[in-house]
């Protein structure tokens, strides 16, 4: 019994020391020392790129779902599921510019929930519809739509 206890203790000590070394390496990185990690930028996408309407809508469905911020994933994916297929080309472009032009997802979120004023270039019928959608006046439990 003593041998088993000794081996168990030795294994725990080795595991602990290995974890300490990993933490030392992880916390010694200086890649984010001068960066505000609460404000991560959205990768740029060329919204003016020529694209067939149906292909643009398919891309927007995906981009609405995969934002990197759960709040926007939920709001934008349910919004796109409900409205995007009915948008004409002009409305689709407004939505594309809205979700792909700002440099930060928090900006979009704060505009949608009206915690910050919407900049003039995004203050349009699509933003108004999105704000109404976010209010969820019918109190429907929202969940991300299934992938096709």
Automatic annotation (TrEMBL):
Subunit annotation: Interacts with the flavoprotein subunit within the SDH catalytic dimer.
Name under which the protein is recorded: Succinate dehydrogenase assembly factor 2, mitochondrial
Classification via HAMAP family: SDHAF2 (MF_03057)
Gene3D superfamilies noted in UniProt: Flavinator of succinate dehydrogenase (1.10.150.250)
Chaperone in keyword set: yes
Family listed: Belongs to the SDHAF2 family.
GO BP annotation list: mitochondrial electron transport, succinate to ubiquinone; mitochondrial respiratory chain complex II assembly; tricarboxylic acid cycle
PANTHER family membership: PROTEIN EMI5 HOMOLOG, MITOCHONDRIAL (PTHR12469), SUCCINATE DEHYDROGENASE ASSEMBLY FACTOR 2, MITOCHONDRIAL (PTHR12469:SF2)
A Pfam family: Sdh5
InterPro entries, per database record: SDH (IPR005631), SDH_sf (IPR036714), SDHAF2 (IPR028882)
Superkingdom of the source species: Eukaryota
Keywords: Chaperone, Mitochondrion
Subcellular location: Mitochondrion matrix
Record's GO cellular component terms: mitochondrial matrix
Its biological purpose: Plays an essential role in the assembly of succinate dehydrogenase (SDH), an enzyme complex (also referred to as respiratory complex II) that is a component of both the tricarboxylic acid (TCA) cycle and the mitochondrial electron transport chain, and which couples the oxidation of succinate to fumarate with the reduction of ubiquinone (coenzyme Q) to ubiquinol. Required for flavinylation (covalent attachment of FAD) of the flavoprotein subunit of the SDH catalytic dimer.
């Amino acid at each position: 019994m003593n041998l088993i206890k000794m081996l168990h203790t030795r294994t725990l000590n080795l595991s602990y020391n290995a974890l300490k070394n990993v933490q030392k390496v992880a916390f010694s990185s200086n890649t984010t020392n001068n960066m505000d990690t609460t404000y991560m930028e959205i990768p740029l996408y060329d919204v003016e790129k020529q694209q067939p309407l149906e292909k643009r809508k398919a891309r927007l469905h995906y981009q609405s779902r995969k934002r990197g911020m759960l709040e926007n994933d939920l709001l934008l994916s349910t919004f796109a599921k409900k409205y995007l297929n009915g948008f004409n080309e002009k409305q689709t472009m407004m939505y594309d510019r809205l979700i792909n032009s700002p440099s930060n997802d928090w900006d979009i979120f704060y505009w949608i929930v009206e915690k910050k004023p919407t900049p003039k270039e995004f203050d349009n019928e699509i933003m108004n519809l999105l704000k109404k959608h976010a209010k969820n006046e019918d109190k429907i439990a929202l969940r991300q739509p299934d992938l096709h």
